[in-house]
Amino acid sequence: MRILLTGSAGMVGRAVAGHCAALGDGVFAHDRHGLDITNPDEVAAVFDRERPEAVINCAAWTDVDACESAPSGTQAIHAGAVETLARHSRRHNAAFVTISTDYVFDGEKEGFYTQRDDPNPRGVYAVSKLDGERLARDAYARSIVVRTGWIFGRGGRNFLSRVVDLALSGQPIKAIHDAYGTPTYAPHLAGRLRELVERDLPGIYHVTNGGAGTTFEEFARAALAIAGCSDAQIESVSIDSLRRPAPRPRNSRLRCLLSEPAGLAPLPDWRTALTEFIAECRMRSGE
Question: Is 125 an annotated catalytic residue?
Fold first, then answer.
């Protein structure tokens, strides 16, 4: 399959590129330096040159705090560019998958958010992501929207991906004890994105690893225990104490109502995925 991939330099983009290439796909990978997805002319030229059969959009500005002070740029990446990609996918009759976020929900619900729950985004990043969902589906009925969150994996710069490295380097670790989510291992997410492309089933999917969800603190303690760093010191903090510019949902656990009817197998439990991630990190570091 000929796949046009955007956001290829990011954690998820790299995982998607590797997974698809291993399956024998022709992957046309673009990072922000090679393709400005906010430039419609550049996007049109790439589509005409590469003529993809599928498009997987992993491009995003994930610094949610920085997004608060740059609403127009955030909207251009997460909404306008997504609409452009969807429109050109329709023009080339290509399957289209774009990644959205658990932040489209306000976090006030107890339990899991499903597709039956109404989004209520708070903050510039979250609003732009929901706008992108709607614009994609309006532009192209075949659009597949994947909501996910709490992504971790090799090369990630977020807390979930770096907690073991922080412990090994002796840096202090602050972990939030009162924010809940469903962790998602980047390679497992990549596999599901490719599967959705192949099945070409339009809709909104919630894609995370299995399990009841967790807090940042519980995730950190599990990671350190698996890595043999149980003596590392963790300071338990509340989400409100950090006083960050962008609002975060206090609860963003996701569950999908479409996966089972579509014949999609559940992804492994997040603890299993975490064990796999740490084993991979050790193998690559030569331990």
Answer: yes
Provide the CATH number for the domain formed by 2-156+185-210+248-267 in this structure.
3.40.50.720
Beta bridge partners of 151: 184
**Catalytic residue selected from 103, 125, 140, 180:** 125
Provide the residue ranges of all domains of the chain, joining segments of one domain with +.
2-156+185-210+248-267
pLDDT for 71-88, tens place per residue? 999 999 999 999 999 999
For the chain, the three-class secondary structure string (H helix, E strand, C coil) is CEEEEECCCCHHHHHHHHHHHHCCCEEEEECCCCCCCCCHHHHHHHHHHHCCCEEEECCCCCCHHHHCCCHHHHHHHHHHHHHHHHHHHHHCCCEEEEEEEHHHCCCCCCCCECCCCCCCCCCHHHHHHHHHHHHHHHHCCCEEEEEECCEECCCCCCHHHHHHHHHHCCCCEEEECCCEECCEEHHHHHHHHHHHHHHCCCEEEECCCECCCEEHHHHHHHHHHHCCCCCCCEEEECCHHHCCCCCCCCECCECCCCCCCCCCCCCCEHHHHHHHHHHHHHHHHCC
Threshold 0.90, pTM exceeds: yes
In tens, the pLDDT along 218-235 reads 999 999 999 998 778 899
Cα 98 to chain center, whole Å?
10
On the question of pLDDT at 285 being above 70, the answer is no
Looking at every residue in the chain, the average pLDDT score rounds to: 95
Q: What is the dihedral of CA 15, 21, 26, 31, to 10 degrees?
A: 30
